[in-house]
Design brief:
With 297 residues, the chain is α/β, with parallel strands linked by helices. Helix content is 52%, strand content 13%. A 7-stranded parallel sheet has the order 3-2-4-1-5-6-7, with helices on both faces. The two termini are 32 Å apart.
């Protein structure tokens, strides 16, 4: 799967479309190839951790205060770093700055794949899957390093921010998860313009086609306003609407579009199988002009 050839893969999209489940499936697919994988979660939730319980894949919910403490220890003598963090003033100042918490969070996830970890005894991961916040917050997360790099042109914060911003532009992969409905597709087409690149678009919860057009006409004639025939006609209408949105998505997407079926009980292992199959068969869509960098505003 081409998208997994990056050291970091950021999974984003509108809330409620299955981002966490797709992030878990991507992690499982990478682990099957023998890669050492971690999944980073933001915002205090631990959805992926529950989905991957027992898989052997590490998950990490980023704690901004702890991550800042770790980073300070790489820049200052340990005693001075501890003193700053115990006072609380420095941490509050950084976290309160616009984009400060986002910068700390994405920098911590970047650190997980570096050969020189903040903890000298820690080994780097081959791949980190980032279960990013929903669309708008996810874009802010990715903008933060470039914003701070432009503001803090000298000093350790500026240097660190530039390194992370360049990494996101040049080395990270991006997956957008959506659903085949008008609003999620519209948000996806807008969101992709805020990303350096789009490696994969996953359309989740696609209903199966059960009836040909001729069969639908017969069912409509037999429905009499209710019963199983009417339910079948309604299903066919939803499928038709979804297919229309999928066509719109494929026309506008900057990366290949793959689909995942609607499932009552979603299992990441099964979705990993589907993603491997679907991405293997998908042809990469022609690249469309896009921004050359994560925008700063």
């Amino acid at each position: 799967m081409d998208v997994l050839n990056h050291p970091m893969v950021v999974v984003t999209g509108k809330g409620g479309v299955g981002k966490s489940t797709v992030a878990a499936a991507l992690a499982l697919a990478a682990a099957r190839d023998g890669r050492r994988v971690a999944v980073g979660e933001l915002g205090g939730h631990a959805r992926v951790a529950g989905l991957l319980r027992g898989s052997g894949i590490d998950t990490q919910t980023v704690d901004v205060h702890h991550a800042l403490t770790e980073w300070l220890a790489t820049q200052l003598p340990r005693r001075l770093a501890d003193l700053l963090m115990r006072s609380g003033a420095f941490a509050s100042l950084v976290a309160a700055a616009p984009g400060g918490a986002e910068l700390i969070s994405i920098t911590k996830l970047w650190e997980l794949v570096q050969h020189r970890r903040w903890n000298p005894n820690a080994e780097p991961y081959d791949l980190v899957i980032v279960d990013a916040p929903a669309s708008g917050h996810g874009a802010a997360l990715l903008r933060a390093p470039r914003t701070f790099a432009d503001i803090a042109r000298v000093g350790p914060i500026g240097t660190q921010a530039r390194e992370v911003a360049d990494f996101l532009k040049e080395d990270a992969g991006f997956v957008i998860v959506t659903m085949p409905a008008e609003l999620p597709v519209s948000e996806t087409l807008q969101l992709q313009q805020q990303l350096p690149d789009v490696d994969l678009v996953v359309a989740n919860a696609v209903l199966p086609r059960r009836f040909a057009a001729g069969d639908v006409a017969k069912l409509q004639a037999a429905s009499n306003g209710g019963g199983p025939a009417a339910a079948a006609v309604a299903h066919a209408g939803r499928v038709r609407a979804q297919q229309g949105q999928l066509q719109r998505l494929r026309r506008g997407a900057r990366g290949p579009v793959v689909t995942l079926p609607w499932m009552l009980d979603v299992e990441p292992d099964e979705l990993a199988d589907r993603l491997i199959t679907e991405t293997g068969a998908a042809r990469r869509a022609p690249r469309r002009p896009g921004p050359v960098d994560v925008p700063s505003g």
